[in-house]
Amino acid sequence: MKNITLVYSICILLLTSTTFAQKKSNNELKKLVETYKKDIRGPYYRIKWFCKDGSIRDAKDPCPDSIGGGIQHASFKQSALAVRKTNHLFFAEILASVNTDNFLDEKNNYSRLKQYQIGQYLASIDDGWILKKGQYYRGAVQSEDEEAWGKNFYETILKDDTFLNANYYLVRQSLKDIPHNGDSNIAQAMRSESKILAEEIPDFMDIRIKIHGNPQKSDIYLVQSYVKKNASKISAKQKKMFDNLLTTMNEFYAPLNYKTIANELAKVKDKNGVLKTLKDFVNEDKSNFSAKDIVQKITDNLDFLRFNITLFQNSKDRLILLDLTNQLEKILLIETQNWNPETLEETILKTETLICASYATGLVEAWEFDVVKPIFSNTLENEKTSLKKLNSLVTNARRIVEWSTSLVKANYQEDVNQYAAFESLAYGFIDDRIRNSITLNLGETVSKLNAFASKVLKVNNNVLGIKDQDAIRGLNPGYAFGKLIVVQGNPNDVEVNSNNIYIFQKPPSDLKPVAGIMTVSEGNLVSHVQLLARNLGIPNAALSSENLKSLEKHNNKNVFYAVSNKGNVILKLENDMTDVEKKLFDKKERTKNMIEVPTNKLKLDVSKIINLRSVKATDSGILCGPKAANLGELKNLFPDKVVEGIIIPFGIFKTHMNKEMPNKKMSYWEFLNATFAQAKELKNKDVSDEEIENFLIRSLKELHTAITNIHLEESFMQDLKDNFISVLGDKMGNVPVFLRSDTNMEDLKEFTGAGLNLTLFNILEEQKIIQGIKEVWASAYTERSFKWRQKYLLNPENVYPSILIIPSVDVDYSGVMITKGINQGSEDDLTVAFSRGAGGAVDGQSAETRLITSETSYLLSPARQADYIRLPATGSTKKYYTTFSKPILNPQNINDIRELATEIRTKIGTKTSEESHAYDVEFGFKDNKLWLFQIRPFVENKQAKSSNYLNSITPKVNMETEINLTEKI
């Protein structure tokens, strides 16, 4: 019996271990969180003593002094400990029990620290969140131990100059959440308390919105008046909640106690001269200061402290000063609301000041701030400015707002997405951080400046009557009609419909065809999504987070959407469309130029592997697709910049497609053609387009699955192995390679096809390469690839994939260049987007985007992608994280890019019939050496650019018009 019990116990233990080893699903996590909310101990188990020698004792058995004593707090339930291992999730963290390095969690991009902040936020807006009942579990957390730990934590991590400089924003934000000196996040508490009241009392919502969006000291009076007016309807519980809110508001808006700051400054031991400016400000008589004076002086001091913080050698001094920056920022946020400029000159001055404050509080990096400073420095020297200069100033100010908000997102989005998948309230965290920053008022000020410029420019948006639509700007011209879908959450969870118009925080990298898009996060101008939108004439615009929220009420309504060539945007309800706009969607007018994939030159009898060196551009569409043909051309033109490679031509694909398809009594190729033939029959029988499309997608999915399981011929396999040795230099399985799909439907004169089919990264093992070949062939028949092609191609059944196989280059950073200016700049300029690691920019990352001219390199947006991948020699990919404290491209890289563009225009441009043809070039840098990966013609939709309607809504302005800076705004 004992043996049976022992075996049973072991089985249970193994089963339990296996269960804990498996990553929990979001549904399981949701249920776990709900369980904790209802538990009087939440995720905690029992109160224990945790001794200095590592031992753990029961609550009634304190750690003796002889072993160094210890601290008392709650232990965790096994389920809470399990999700730490399986999902790297840390609920209701007790800081006193955590090792400093483990909590910092640097290898996971500081995830554990950020989760603590998200947990604090959720607790503030959801009555304790996971500790809804557990917050009353006495003794679970000891505040004095938490504060002592917090102080030690900061004094440890702030010793590292590099860490502090690279993570200045994150450090300052964490100081608001991690206990270390008795402070609390008052601004967040004020927003949370007003939010909870508005949920209980709906007609308090207007005041809550005011507190949330435009906080001012006068809000205290609004709340007091509301309580007085509605006293008879407010319950005792609600009255207490209002009292708490008023206490918090009075604390938040209390005058800054400069005597307290002076006392804190006196604690700083390092007596260098950096503090003189701050001490002078603290001791200055401020009785006659205006809001403008205070904002400028606090900004100057915050700027000076950020620039010089590492001059203080003692980490205790740094902690004191960083805490002071948060106190000063709180006053800055209040006083910026009180500074209300009346003239253009003062509005520009306020904009300039708040941009400096964005740097000073960590929202933009030092090198980014250095880029924009000169743009503003000369504007106020004269009495007048030109419309061109004003427009440039507004454009750059708006960029700083975007850079600031995107930095917040880059820091927290990954962890917020993880939490939001099982707790939707987490989505509000990033918005809360942005609102508790200078970005809120900078955005408002830039909107006023933009509204003035738009009035003079006559570039007026007409977007469903929402507020602050001056923040909206067009990226790509076009027009569309369809259902408006506003996506607040993770875009990758959305199944898109090609007839709809979508508004995203950030578009997914594998976006299927849509009628139109608007995005809060512009991403980069040369991602595959942006290039396809430009190619197909899909209207595309950028907007603010506030705009997105304002448009939510129109979700699922039919709208007309247009973006002009100058970037003004129209979005209106179906009933408000003019007759001209309705006619744009008559069937006759709606017909687009359809393209037939040329097949008359195909050489399908070539059934041997081809050396990349043996092909040239003219072989495109004959032996292989344009990727391989153009890269072969490049190998001859730029031998030291292009790797060796081999090509699996169309003929090998067709040979395999002629084999019999399992259980079909026909070949794969016959099945494909029969599918499209049946679709034509259904069309003739007036079957709906939707039914036909569903039939095609089902059939192509069946074909896709069959091709991924196709048997590869032995002669082909031997040929492949031989070429690995003779061309790539080693046996298959020893050389990590890229497998790139390369079809005959890419880079046609009017269709680019960028990024539609599969590229496999850094494949090493022989079996994975073999399976990868099948998957790349099959990728031509995925739903996404088919839907994009279907918009333009008359004969989508005649798509032939070849495969380009090249050895991996583990580049430090990579990206895309378009050999012309996009959205701004001229035909002679270069638009470049780069991200760290491999595959940069093309997949829609927030890349470092530049307009490179013959003389300058103009930063359009810095990188905001924290994670990136590298290509180890062992195959597959490895994920890393980065900060944004340095630019990606250096001056040498930029010169190399200029030289490459000149060579491409000279060596390739002269061979084309079009003199000013632009190219889309993918390349990367490894140890500052440039490697070329792909070149293709850059295709734009000329119909959209020349549309009579779009021309009619495009304003015509004299940019040299002069404006007096004294004009009222």
From TrEMBL:
Which cofactors are reported in the record for this sequence? Mg(2+)
Catalytic activity annotated for this protein?
Answer: pyruvate + ATP + H2O = phosphoenolpyruvate + AMP + phosphate + 2 H(+)
Pyruvate phosphate dikinase AMP/ATP-binding domain sequence ranges? 624-948
What EC class is this?
transferase
- Gene3D superfamilies, A to Z: ATP-grasp fold, A domain, ATP-grasp fold, B domain
Enzyme Commission (EC) number: 2.7.9.2
**Residues making up the signal peptide according to the UniProt record:** 1-21
- Metabolic or biological pathway: Carbohydrate biosynthesis; gluconeogenesis
Q: What does this protein do?
A: Catalyzes the phosphorylation of pyruvate to phosphoenolpyruvate.
Which family does the UniProt entry place this protein in? Belongs to the PEP-utilizing enzyme family.
Q: What is this protein called?
A: Phosphoenolpyruvate synthase
Specify the species. Polaribacter batillariae
